[in-house]
Each structure stands twice: as structure tokens, then as C-alpha cells.
């Protein structure tokens, strides 16, 4: 474990991108271009790949200079979920990547995978930045026609939790089908940017880097709303949607907080936040008192822990498109008081 301070400021956090999407939708195709893009920017990305089978064929497509952890023989979200945090933490220690991409199997429930990512935040300074769901356009329309079976439900869930929706294989969609697919995506997810693509090719990579957001917002403002879509959304630079309406917010504490104030904060969480988890130190307990907390459906639970090795004071909040800024303010107020 690194000896230096791990309560890293925002700039030192490693962005984590979760790549989700149905089997064969084009995740690996997108992973390849994301890696090329990040390397072009001088970054050192690392990859975690998860395959249902025992051999990872897609892994062969990732060049050997990219550190990669493979989680085979199961789905990140169920059988080996506990290992995801460990995998991420050891990848960080060994390779010090400055971006991590997790490609989950097409059968994964993204909320469960997100939960696995939160575990890793306790051991390494991470920030889940985007959930990119690659959607197989023709398959989506086909599945909807077939009715709302389990497969369609999983697809819908993957779409719902995305911050960026890549509507892929549009070369196989007629113009009216393209419109239909976009409408369906918007019904399932009111906030995420929808980007139609062929072979996952996209031009706008602003979402990769949060620092790019203010500049893009300005560009939108300058456009004077000229880019508005019929439904009032700015699809072209949809970043501000994904930035103000996040799925997960990771907060690294600067120091201990007061226990009752923290419990009160959990009670005041907006409904859109349905899970939170982390490690906190309480200022009003005997020194060194650290607690693992869990929050789900308005109920919270604290367990006293005495971790071996370095563990961050961190809280991760998961939900559906809540405002990260508001939540950050709530926690910062708490820290001032304590
Ligand atoms: N026609 C068409 N085919 C595409 C497009 N994008 C990807 N494909 C093909 O779709 C297949 C699946 O692509 P992958 O990138 O392997 O998809 P995946 O989601 O990683 O697949 P799994 O690993 O099986 O979950 C490949 O044969 C691609 O060449 C597209 O835009 N149009």
C-alpha cells in the first residue's frame, strides 16, 4: 500500500468508468477506442474485464501494454462481486493507472457492479465518473417487440443507470427505427446523453474528463439554446446532465465527523439516493474509532472496525440521478461543524 496520504484531493483520484451493455452490443469495440483515446491523452489506463466463461477472448483485443485484470468464470455482480474491490485495489497498487475501465459481462446488473466499485474506494482513491451503457439498437427494438421478459428487463436496467448511452449499430436501423430507439432510451432514462453511433465511433469525448465540463457548459450557453432538442434536452453536449445527475458520488473525508450529525445527514438524504456505504471516523468517540456504515432504503447501520493496513475515510452514495453538488455541500457543512 502506498505510504503517502491517500485522502487525495479530487485531482488525484483515479476516474473509474463502468462499461455496461448487453451481450454483443459493442462493449469491447468501445473499450478499444476508449483506450486509444486515453493513451492519446498521455494517460495510463487499466482494465478490468469480466467474462462469464473461463477464457477471455476479448482480452486478446487489448494491447499488452495496458494492465488488465481478468475476472473469469462468473459475473462481477454475483458470484465474485467481493473480489472486484480487491482486484481494483491491487491493480492500483501495482500499476498506478490514471484511469480504470471496468467492462462487465452483458449479463451483469449494473447496480450490483456499482456496489462492488464502492468497496474499492475504501482502499484506493477512486471516483466513479461515468456509467456508459452500450445499446445494441436493433436488439433493443426487437426485445421490446417480444415483450417485457427478463432479458428486456435487464437491458432496461442497464439503460436506466447510465450516465452516457451509446446507441450502437445504427447502420442497421432505418431512420424511423433510429427515432424510435432514441425515444425509447429517453423514456427509460430521462437524463443521460444519448449518442447514436456505428461501431461505437464517437466524436465528443468531453465526458471522459470532468474538468472539460465548464468549458462545454459555456459553449452551450453561447449557443443560446440553439441546439435544443424537441424535448428540451441538449443532446450534443449532454455532459452537464451526467455531471449534475450522477449515479454515484464518492466523498473522501478530510477528518473525523460528529456521529449524530452524520446519522442525521443519512436521514436527510434525498430519495434519489438509495444506497450509501463507507468508512467514517467519529470525533466524539474515543480516538481511532472508525465505523463501517451501510445505508439502504432509509435505514442505516454502523459497525465498529479496526482495519489492518490503510483504509480511507470515504462515503459512496449510489442512486438515480441526484445532485452531486447538493450532496457535497451537505457533507461539507457537516465537516465544518465537527
Ligand atoms: N453492424 C454493426 N456491427 C457492429 C457494430 N458495432 C459492433 N459490431 C459487431 O458486433 C459484434 C459484437 O461486438 P463486441 O464489441 O465484441 O461486443 P461486446 O458487447 O463486447 O460483446 P460481448 O463480449 O459478447 O458481450 C462484433 O462482431 C462487432 O464487429 C455496429 O455499429 N454495427
UniProtKB/TrEMBL annotation:
<dbReference type="Pfam" id="PF07683">
    <property type="entry name" value="CobW_C"/>
</dbReference>
<feature type="domain" description="CobW C-terminal">
    <location>
        <begin position="250"/>
        <end position="333"/>
    </location>
</feature>
<keyword id="KW-0378">Hydrolase</keyword>
<keyword id="KW-0143">Chaperone</keyword>
<protein>
    <submittedName>
        <fullName>GTP-binding protein</fullName>
    </submittedName>
</protein>
<comment type="similarity">
    <text>Belongs to the SIMIBI class G3E GTPase family. ZNG1 subfamily.</text>
</comment>
<keyword id="KW-0547">Nucleotide-binding</keyword>
<feature type="compositionally biased region" description="Basic and acidic residues">
    <location>
        <begin position="217"/>
        <end position="234"/>
    </location>
</feature>
<dbReference type="InterPro" id="IPR051316">
    <property type="entry name" value="Zinc-reg_GTPase_activator"/>
</dbReference>
<dbReference type="InterPro" id="IPR003495">
    <property type="entry name" value="CobW/HypB/UreG_nucleotide-bd"/>
</dbReference>
<feature type="domain" description="CobW/HypB/UreG nucleotide-binding">
    <location>
        <begin position="15"/>
        <end position="195"/>
    </location>
</feature>
<dbReference type="InterPro" id="IPR027417">
    <property type="entry name" value="P-loop_NTPase"/>
</dbReference>
<dbReference type="GO" id="GO:0000166">
    <property type="term" value="F:nucleotide binding"/>
</dbReference>
<dbReference type="GO" id="GO:0005737">
    <property type="term" value="C:cytoplasm"/>
</dbReference>
<dbReference type="InterPro" id="IPR036627">
    <property type="entry name" value="CobW-likC_sf"/>
</dbReference>
<feature type="region of interest" description="Disordered">
    <location>
        <begin position="217"/>
        <end position="241"/>
    </location>
</feature>
<dbReference type="Pfam" id="PF02492">
    <property type="entry name" value="cobW"/>
</dbReference>
<dbReference type="GO" id="GO:0016787">
    <property type="term" value="F:hydrolase activity"/>
</dbReference>
<dbReference type="InterPro" id="IPR011629">
    <property type="entry name" value="CobW-like_C"/>
</dbReference>
Amino acid at each position: 500500500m502506498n505510504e503517502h496520504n491517500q485522502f487525495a484531493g479530487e485531482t488525484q483520484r483515479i476516474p473509474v468508468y463502468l462499461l455496461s451493455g448487453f451481450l454483443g452490443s459493442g462493449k469491447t469495440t468501445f473499450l478499444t477506442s476508449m483506450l486509444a483515446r486515453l493513451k492519446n491523452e498521455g494517460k495510463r489506463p487499466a482494465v478490468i474485464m469480466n467474462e462469464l466463461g473461463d477464457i477471455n477472448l476479448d482480452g486478446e483485443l487489448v494491447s499488452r501494454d495496458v494492465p488488465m485484470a481478468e475476472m473469469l468464470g462468473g459475473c462481477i455482480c454475483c458470484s465474485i462481486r467481493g473480489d472486484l474491490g480487491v482486484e481494483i485495489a491491487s491493480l492500483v497498487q501495482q500499476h498506478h493507472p490514471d484511469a480504470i475501465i471496468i467492462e462487465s459481462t452483458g449479463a451483469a446488473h449494473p447496480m450490483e457492479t456499482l456496489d462492488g466499485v464502492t468497496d474499492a474506494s475504501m482502499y484506493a482513491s477512486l471516483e466513479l465518473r461515468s456509467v456508459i451503457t452500450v445499446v445494441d439498437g436493433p436488439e433493443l427494438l426487437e426485445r421490446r417487440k417480444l415483450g417485457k421478459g427478463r432479458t428486456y428487463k435487464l437491458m432496461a436496467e442497464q439503460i436506466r443507470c447510465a450516465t452516457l448511452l451509446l446507441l450502437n449499430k445504427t447502420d442497421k436501423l432505418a431512420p424511423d427505427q433510429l427515432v424510435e430507439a432514441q425515444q425509447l432510451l429517453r423514456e427509460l432514462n430521462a437524463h443521460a446523453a444519448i449518442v447514436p453511433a456505428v461501431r461505437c465511433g464517437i466524436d465528443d469525448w468531453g465526458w471522459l474528463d470532468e474538468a472539460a465540463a465548464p468549458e462545454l457548459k459555456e459553449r452551450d450557453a453561447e449557443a443560446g439554446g440553439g441546439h435544443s432538442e424537441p424535448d428540451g434536452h441538449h443532446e450534443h453536449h449532454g455532459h452537464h446532465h451526467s455531471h449534475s445527475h450522477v449515479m454515484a458520488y464518492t466523498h473522501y473525508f478530510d477528518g473525523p465527523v460528529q456521529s449524530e450529525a452524520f446519522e442525521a445527514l443519512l436521514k436527510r438524504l434525498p430519495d434519489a439516493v438509495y444506497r450509501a456505504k463507507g468508512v467514517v471516523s467519529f470525533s466524539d468517540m474515543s480516538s481511532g474509532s472508525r465505523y463501517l456504515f451501510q445505508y439502504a432504503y432509509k435505514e442505516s447501520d454502523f459497525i465498529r472496525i479496526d482495519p489492518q493496513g490503510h483504509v480511507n475515510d470515504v462515503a459512496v452514495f449510489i442512486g438515480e440521478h441526484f445532485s452531486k453538488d447538493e450532496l457535497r455541500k451537505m457533507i461539507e457543512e457537516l465537516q465544518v461543524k465537527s
